[in-house]
Amino acid sequence: MPYKEKTVEKLFWSIGEVADELGVNTSLIRYWEKEFGHLLRTRRNSKGDRLFTVKEIEQLRRIQHLVKDQGFTLNGAKVRLKSDEPAPPPMQDALTEVRERLLKVRSELIALRDRR
Predict the structure, then answer these.
(1) What whole-number distance in Å separates Cα of residue 79 and Cα of residue 74?
(2) What pLDDT, on a 0 to 100 scale, did the predictor assign at position 14?
(3) Of 12, 45, 59, 95, which has the most beta carbons under 10 Å away?
(4) Where are the alpha helices (DSSP H) in the chain?
(5) CA-CA distance, 63 to 59, in Å (whole number)?
């Protein structure tokens, strides 16, 4: 069996790395974080440095595209991004789905027990 080399992917990027990737200043990213805080949930390390995930970097790319390329105002970009978000499923639907999955697991466990 041939050896498969694993690729290690970073989980978090610093604000400087993200700024280089997007071709903007770190101050602009901080500003966008302040303005679009409900859409960007950046983590911080023990020193208080911002840490960005792939999802947050993609969100920043969308903001950059809307504001810089498409000419949206910040408020217009907020509205556009909010309308693109999928609506969360209603809580009752999620609870029903979990209950059904648990019942299925329970029946499978009972079937395994009865085989003995």
Answers:
(1) 9
(2) 93
(3) 59
(4) 15-22, 26-35, 54-64, 74-84, 91-115
(5) 6
Instruction: Give mean pLDDT in consecutive 10-residue pieces for the chain, a chain of 116 residues.
Output: 66 93 94 88 89 91 91 89 68 80 92 88
Q: Do 56 and 41 form a contact (C-beta atoms < 8 A)?
A: yes
CB 50 within 8 A of CB 14: yes
pLDDT score for 96: 83
What is the pLDDT, as a whole number, of residue 1? 54
Pairing of strands 43-44, 50-52: antiparallel
Q: In 3-state terms, what secondary structure has residue 5?
A: coil
Write out pLDDT tens, residues 50-80.
999 999 999 999 999 999 988 989 998 888 8
Coil vs helix vs strand at 43: strand
Query: Judging by beta carbons within 10 Å of its beta carbon (0-12, 13-18, 19+), is residue 63 exposed, middle or buried?
Result: buried
Q: Which residues pair with 34 in a beta bridge?
A: none
CB of 15 within 8 A of CB of 30? yes
